[in-house]
Amino acid sequence: MNTIPDNGSSSLMAMLAPLGLASQAYAPNSRYYGVPTQRATTADGRTVTCLVRRVVPQPAVFATMQIITLRDGDRLDRLAGQYLGDPLLFWRLCDANGVVRPDELTETAGASLRITLPAGIPGAPHA
Fold first, then answer.
1. pTM over 0.85
2. How many CB atoms lie within 10 A of CB 116?
3. What is the C-alpha to C-alpha distance for residues 3 and 115, in angstroms, rounded to an integer?
4. How do residues 9-59 score in pLDDT, each as one tens digit?
5. Which long-range contacts (CB under 8 A, 24 or more apart) does 97-106 make?
6. What letter would DSSP give residue 87?
7. 3-state SS class at 17
8. pLDDT over 90 for what percent of the chain?
9. Cα–Cα distance between 15 and 29 in angstroms, integer?
10. Nearest CA to 97 among 66, 47, 59?
11. What is the reported pLDDT for 125?
12. Residue 89 exposed, middle or buried by CB count within 10 Å (0-12, 13-18, 19+)
Protein backbone atom coordinates (compact mmCIF):
# COMPACT_ATOMS: atom_id res chain seq x y z
CA MET A 1 0.00 0.00 0.00
CA ASN A 2 1.45 3.36 -1.04
CA THR A 3 0.87 6.08 1.50
CA ILE A 4 0.94 9.80 0.97
CA PRO A 5 2.51 11.57 3.91
CA ASP A 6 0.12 13.91 5.69
CA ASN A 7 2.10 17.08 6.28
CA GLY A 8 -0.68 18.78 8.19
CA SER A 9 -2.30 20.29 5.11
CA SER A 10 -5.35 17.99 5.20
CA SER A 11 -7.55 20.66 6.82
CA LEU A 12 -6.61 23.09 4.04
CA MET A 13 -7.34 20.40 1.46
CA ALA A 14 -10.72 19.76 3.07
CA MET A 15 -11.61 23.45 2.76
CA LEU A 16 -10.51 23.65 -0.88
CA ALA A 17 -12.14 20.41 -2.05
CA PRO A 18 -15.77 21.71 -2.20
CA LEU A 19 -14.55 24.60 -4.33
CA GLY A 20 -12.85 22.26 -6.75
CA LEU A 21 -9.49 23.74 -5.77
CA ALA A 22 -7.91 20.80 -3.97
CA SER A 23 -4.46 20.15 -5.34
CA GLN A 24 -3.17 16.82 -6.50
CA ALA A 25 -0.71 14.91 -4.36
CA TYR A 26 1.38 14.19 -7.46
CA ALA A 27 2.66 16.33 -10.33
CA PRO A 28 0.97 16.02 -13.75
CA ASN A 29 3.94 14.06 -15.12
CA SER A 30 3.65 11.41 -12.40
CA ARG A 31 2.13 8.02 -13.13
CA TYR A 32 0.06 8.56 -9.98
CA TYR A 33 -1.43 11.91 -11.03
CA GLY A 34 -5.20 11.67 -10.85
CA VAL A 35 -5.16 8.26 -9.14
CA PRO A 36 -7.83 8.32 -6.43
CA THR A 37 -6.87 8.12 -2.78
CA GLN A 38 -8.57 6.69 0.25
CA ARG A 39 -8.05 7.20 3.96
CA ALA A 40 -7.18 4.36 6.29
CA THR A 41 -6.72 4.18 10.04
CA THR A 42 -3.68 2.32 11.33
CA ALA A 43 -3.70 0.03 14.35
CA ASP A 44 -2.31 2.84 16.51
CA GLY A 45 -5.14 5.20 15.46
CA ARG A 46 -3.28 7.36 12.92
CA THR A 47 -5.08 8.27 9.72
CA VAL A 48 -3.08 7.89 6.53
CA THR A 49 -3.99 8.61 2.93
CA CYS A 50 -3.36 5.72 0.56
CA LEU A 51 -3.34 5.49 -3.20
CA VAL A 52 -5.97 3.28 -4.76
CA ARG A 53 -4.32 0.71 -7.01
CA ARG A 54 -3.36 2.16 -10.39
CA VAL A 55 -4.62 0.07 -13.28
CA VAL A 56 -2.02 -0.04 -16.02
CA PRO A 57 -3.63 0.45 -19.44
CA GLN A 58 -3.28 -2.26 -22.07
CA PRO A 59 -0.69 -1.40 -24.77
CA ALA A 60 -3.43 -1.51 -27.42
CA VAL A 61 -4.99 1.74 -26.12
CA PHE A 62 -1.88 3.72 -27.10
CA ALA A 63 -1.61 5.19 -30.61
CA THR A 64 1.88 4.63 -32.00
CA MET A 65 3.66 7.74 -33.23
CA GLN A 66 6.97 6.09 -33.97
CA ILE A 67 8.92 2.88 -33.46
CA ILE A 68 12.59 3.26 -32.66
CA THR A 69 15.43 0.74 -32.55
CA LEU A 70 17.31 0.74 -29.26
CA ARG A 71 21.07 1.20 -29.21
CA ASP A 72 23.54 -0.04 -26.66
CA GLY A 73 23.63 2.41 -23.75
CA ASP A 74 20.16 3.89 -24.34
CA ARG A 75 18.52 5.05 -21.12
CA LEU A 76 14.78 5.24 -20.60
CA ASP A 77 14.86 8.67 -18.98
CA ARG A 78 16.86 10.10 -21.87
CA LEU A 79 14.53 8.50 -24.43
CA ALA A 80 11.51 9.93 -22.61
CA GLY A 81 13.16 13.35 -22.57
CA GLN A 82 13.97 13.17 -26.27
CA TYR A 83 10.66 11.79 -27.55
CA LEU A 84 8.13 12.87 -24.91
CA GLY A 85 9.76 16.10 -23.77
CA ASP A 86 10.14 15.08 -20.12
CA PRO A 87 12.49 12.43 -18.68
CA LEU A 88 10.04 11.81 -15.82
CA LEU A 89 7.54 10.44 -18.36
CA PHE A 90 9.60 7.24 -18.74
CA TRP A 91 6.62 5.39 -17.19
CA ARG A 92 4.53 6.21 -20.28
CA LEU A 93 7.03 4.27 -22.38
CA CYS A 94 6.69 1.36 -19.93
CA ASP A 95 2.88 1.42 -20.11
CA ALA A 96 2.82 1.70 -23.91
CA ASN A 97 5.23 -1.20 -24.31
CA GLY A 98 3.59 -3.44 -21.73
CA VAL A 99 6.38 -3.72 -19.18
CA VAL A 100 6.34 -3.32 -15.42
CA ARG A 101 10.09 -3.27 -14.84
CA PRO A 102 11.53 -0.22 -16.68
CA ASP A 103 14.97 -1.78 -17.28
CA GLU A 104 13.32 -4.41 -19.50
CA LEU A 105 12.82 -1.81 -22.21
CA THR A 106 16.47 -0.92 -22.74
CA GLU A 107 18.32 -4.11 -21.85
CA THR A 108 18.51 -5.41 -25.44
CA ALA A 109 20.22 -3.31 -28.10
CA GLY A 110 18.43 -3.71 -31.43
CA ALA A 111 15.00 -4.20 -29.83
CA SER A 112 12.07 -2.03 -30.91
CA LEU A 113 10.42 0.53 -28.66
CA ARG A 114 7.04 2.14 -29.35
CA ILE A 115 6.78 5.89 -28.85
CA THR A 116 3.09 6.64 -28.39
CA LEU A 117 0.53 9.27 -27.65
CA PRO A 118 -0.87 9.20 -24.10
CA ALA A 119 -3.47 6.51 -23.37
CA GLY A 120 -6.86 7.25 -24.87
CA ILE A 121 -5.69 9.88 -27.37
CA PRO A 122 -6.36 8.49 -30.83
CA GLY A 123 -3.77 8.76 -33.56
CA ALA A 124 -4.38 9.58 -37.20
CA PRO A 125 -5.87 6.61 -39.06
CA HIS A 126 -3.39 4.91 -41.38
CA ALA A 127 -0.60 7.23 -40.27
1. no
2. 23
3. 31
4. 455 556 555 655 455 678 888 888 888 888 999 999 999 988 888 888 899
5. 97/59, 98/58, 98/59, 100/56, 102/76, 103/76, 105/70, 105/76, 106/70, 106/74, 106/75, 106/76, 106/79
6. G
7. helix
8. 50
9. 25
10. 59
11. 60
12. buried
